[in-house]
UniProtKB/TrEMBL annotation:
Domain of life assignment: Bacteria
Chorismate-utilising enzyme C-terminal domain span: 118-376
Molecular function GO terms recorded: anthranilate synthase activity
Domain Glutamine amidotransferase, residue spans: 446-624
EC identifiers of the protein: 4.1.3.27
Name of the molecule in the record: anthranilate synthase
Keyword Lyase: yes
Pfam family, one: GATase
InterPro entries referenced in this protein's UniProt entry, alphabetically: ADC_synthase (IPR005801), Anth_synth_I-like (IPR019999), Chorismate_C (IPR015890), Class_I_gatase-like (IPR029062), GATASE (IPR017926), TrpG/PapA_dom (IPR006221)
Gene3D superfamilies, alphabetized: 3.40.50.880, Anthranilate synthase
Keywords: Glutamine amidotransferase, Lyase
Length: 643
């Protein structure tokens, strides 16, 4: 039997180190050692996943530039998709691994961020003003990279850093070293991106960063953090964005579980789990979920454009994933993919990169986001021998606390309270057909996507109400024949800029639908374009409504709903005469902002009834569909969601 010490010693052979991965997964009492040849692939679909006995087959190292497979923008830095084809798999006990890994300090020199604090703060300010402030999205992640030089053999340094992370870090989803021959990745990622096991797809949105010292006083500070509107809304926004992805890869969308507190050595985060049943090839699951909104932003496609505008270099492997693909005992595909964050990349020449990013939302401050990038890097930097003086002000190591803050009753109550205002549709288990309304069963709806995959969530809700639903991208010819309802959906951008092809195309579509008298529902951007056709003026808000929940009046009924918008239509009266007939308007009493409108055969809502923030979203949809399809379905069926 080969001893663990010999296995790990062979990895550190400086003459010719073989490709390998050494991984500890969350809660495991062992590390997995994978060795084998490395191949490159052009596409995720080309990742090897052969038939055979149960177990892992391939570990793929997926760069950020792979987002181009979805047609999304990126700074293409040419980083390859590398696949470690697993020839041998060994399990090494945690204690044995710690005894065998190099017990020596990692010496790194010349550390400094490629973008200084002041410059990074300026970028944050521009994104807040020019992107979020102009309706391009709800949140965006902008990264910067700490660079240094590692002294001595890089593989030995990485193995020593792994030992340091195993001892010092806690709460990581994966703690790992991956050596492909052309690069080394070492890190402690807190976040599962996506996993598939026994047909169950799971995602794990994490957001909100609490920097702690491990002192007893942290409890009160943590409670303030958990009630901070910025932190609460930031998690809601990434939850919505990952629910959009689950709507694509799980047959009935995702069920929300949590929230929980994830405690690490320097930080604590808040997180949800999403779970849903799916049957796609796991490589397609990877493709459809590139990449997590916690490292990009939302809506996803436009977030990639914003990143490309404001980041002057490619992301290499930051925000990509490690993806372990395999098969279970019944031959079914399996997948486990952590996000490549809190990770250092080391070249064969010893060049070190530690990329970190901060999530920018409407409440962000430049100073706060600068501090967040320092805090996120702290654990990896400590394991690599980079002290506070090299990287800027870093929080003091927490060590081990006597009692987990997550077990504190007040902390648990504060976390549970976050679900109070949310839509039960996404929180509760859903039995297919249980919420279908008799007047809708057998009818068909087409949703036109304006570059925001909220439309996937909307499709699940309309399906749950009884409709058969198809989706179509605005860039493709929209054939509406055969549909009982057309939904013109949300998307980013300025609805008043009709020189922009998307705005012109969607407005033309709406004009044709109204002229033909075809039942039409417009959501968010669609609602703004519909309002413009009806002659209502459009206004850009000084304070964007991005990820904002409000209780508003919708046709005389109080509804709690979620907004993701920078623009709004304005009306001076509750009824408006238009070229398409009289229109009833639900508007804000203070400023005239139009929350909803309905006329003969059409309706629009500025908010997102499909959002997890829309506690009353299903009620609103059912009422609108009763109006549009001329059957008062709500009166003949109990409510699927009363909130």
């Amino acid at each position: 039997m080969t001893r663990p010490h010999d296995l790990i010693a062979a990895l550190a052979d400086t003459a010719e180190p073989v490709p390998f991965a050494l991984v500890r997964r969350e809660g495991a009492d062992h590390l997995d050692l994978f060795t084998g040849p490395v191949r490159t692939a052009d596409r995720l679909a080309d990742i090897p996943l052969p038939d055979g006995p149960s177990g892992p087959r391939t570990l793929a190292v997926v760069p950020y530039r792979q987002i181009g497979e979805r047609g999304f923008a990126c700074v293409d830095d040419g980083m390859p998709l590398e696949c470690l084809v697993i020839a041998e798999h060994h399990r090494i006990g945690l204690a044995d691994a710690l005894a065998a890994l190099p017990d020596r300090p990692v010496v790194s020199t010349g550390a400094g961020f490629d973008i200084g604090d002041d410059e990074y703060a300026e970028i944050v300010g521009r994104v807040l003003a020019e992107e979020i402030g102009r309706g391009e999205g709800a949140n965006f992640v902008i990264h910067r990279t700490l660079r240094a030089s590692v002294q001595g053999p890089p593989v030995v340094a990485a193995l020593a850093a792994l030992r340091g992370l195993l001892l010092a870090e806690r709460g990581a989803y994966w703690t790992f070293v991956v050596h492909t021959g052309t690069r080394i990745l070492v890190g402690a990622s807190p976040e599962r991106h996506v996993s598939v096991d026994d047909g169950l797809v799971m995602m794990n949105p994490i957001s909100g960063t609490f920097r702690h010292t491990g002192a007893a006083a942290d409890r009160d500070a943590l409670l303030r953090f958990l009630r901070d509107p910025k932190e609460v809304e930031e998690l809601y926004m990434v939850l919505d964005e990952e629910l959009k992805m689950m709507a694509t890869v799980a047959e009935h969308g995702g069920q929300v579980i949590g929230p929980y507190l994830k405690e690490m050595s320097h930080l604590a985060h808040t997180e949800y789990l999403l779970a849903g049943r799916g049957s796609l090839d796991v490589r397609e699951v990877l493709r459809e979920t590139m990449f997590a909104p916690t490292v990009t932003g939302s809506p996803m496609e436009n977030a990639c454009r914003v990143i490309a505008r404001h980041e002057r270099t490619g992301r290499r492997y930051y925000a990509g994933v490690l993806a372990l693909l395999g098969r279970d005992a019944d031959g079914r595909q399996t997948l486990d993919a952590p996000i490549l964050i809190r990770t250092a990349e080391i070249s064969p020449a010893g060049e070190l990169r530690v990329p970190v990013g901060a999530t920018l939302v409407r409440h962000s401050t430049a100073a706060g986001e600068v501090a967040e990038t320092h805090a996120k890097a702290a654990g990896v930097l400590a394991a690599l021998g980079l002290g506070p003086d090299a990287a800027g002000p870093l929080p003091r190591s927490a060590g081990t606390t006597a009692r987990s803050l997550a077990e504190d009753p007040e902390v648990r109550a504060a976390l549970a309270a976050r679900n109070g205002p949310l839509a039960r549709f996404w929180l509760d288990q859903r039995t297919p057909g249980a919420t279908a309304l008799p007047g809708l069963i057998g009818r068909r709806a087409l949703i036109v996507d304006g570059e925001d995959t909220f439309t996937g969530m909307l499709a699940h809700q309309l399906g749950a109400l009884g409709l058969a639903v198809d989706r179509c991208d605005w860039r493709r010819p929209v054939a509406v024949d055969g549909y009982d309802l057309v939904v013109v959906g949300p998307g980013p951008g300025d609805p008043g800029n009709l020189a922009e092809p998307k705005m012109a195309a969607m407005r033309t579509l709406l004009a044709g639908l109204l002229a033909a008298g075809r039942p039409t529902l417009a959501v968010c951007l669609g609602h703004q374009l519909l309002s413009g056709l009806l002659g209502l003026p459009l206004h850009r808000r000084e304070a964007p409504y991005q990820g904002l929940q409000r209780e508003v009046s919708v046709f005389g009924r109080s509804r709690r709903v979620g907004f993701y918008s920078t623009f709004t239509a304005l009306a001076g009266a509750d009824r408006v005469a238009t070229a398409y007939g009289p229109v009833e308007v639900s508007r804000d009493a203070a400023d005239g902002a139009v929350h909803a409108l309905r006329g003969p055969g059409f309706a629009g809502v500025q908010f997102h009834p499909e959002s997890v923030l829309s506690r009353d979203g299903m009620v609103v949809l059912a009422d609108l569909l009763g109006h549009l399809l001329a059957r008062p379905a709500w009166a003949t069926h109990s409510s699927p969601e009363r909130g």
